[in-house]
Fold this sequence. Notes:
The protein is of the alpha+beta class. The chain is about 45% helix and about 25% strand. It has six helices and nine strands. The strands form three sheets. It has a five-stranded mixed sheet with strand order 4-6-7-9-8, covered by helices on one side. The longest helix has about 35 residues, at about 25-60. The two termini are about 35 Å apart. The mean pLDDT is about 90. It binds adenosine-5'-diphosphate (ADP). Adenosine-5'-diphosphate (ADP) binds near residues 154, 188, 206, 216 and 217.
Amino acid sequence: xxxxxxxxxxxxxxxxxxxVIIEDLTDQVQLQNVKKDFFxxxxxxxxxxxxxxxxxxxxxxxxxxxxxxxxEVSTKMVELADYMKGFVDDMLMLSRLETFVDGPIETIDxxxxxxxxxxxxxxxxxxxxxxxxxxxxxxxxxxxxxxITKLFKNMIENAIKYNKEQGTIKIDLKRNLNQIVFVIEDxxxxxxxxxxxxxxxxxxxxxxxxxxxxxxxxxxxxxxxxNKYHGHISVESVENEFTKFTIVI
Length: 249
Ligand code: ADP
């Protein structure tokens, strides 16, 4: 425990009074540590690609590489810039959620938004020859469009990214009394049991050696969004078989 102790003593008539104020600072200290870790982690995550990007730019600037080689390197530079942009966007989204900055509440056609998001990813779905099975109701929902788009995007992106070639993604979106239930299941790498609770923590990535790019912020953002709408997210998974996320709002 981190305690702050203050004593004040007074002398009144014949008796001594001592007032002891003990303040528990554990939460504040923990919060400071989380912030310190967050900044050092985020700084490191950005420093590496910036250094690599600068190295590539110098190779081109000094004409150490030219022609098709330079073209190849510039493609890598675009990928690095995209990664950094995604990382910064995710950090801004998290900070927006943590500081309770809300956009306007609008009526959202969830089915349309889901289909638009799938359309946005159609190239990566095709590239991996993934089959998508949909069981989606017409549902309208009062919410912030930025939140719901981000929720669908992050869940679908993971289901593609961690899926196998020729795998399947099954999506159910149903209204059940006054609850909305969204289930997304893929036939991919799966998540080891010991990691299943931790995947919602920011920057947590299962087995860093996996080659898929990512920031480790996607599910932390989804969990924040789900909490904002007083909902609940859970995961079930068997390694190399399936991963199934259920969101109830
Ligand atoms: P990112 O995908 O950027 O690493 P996320 O927060 O979205 O970050 O996910 C955290 C981790 O959870 C991922 O690194 C991955 O190991 C695991 N994960 C998330 N979704 C899936 C999924 N559908 N199948 C297997 N593993 C997953």
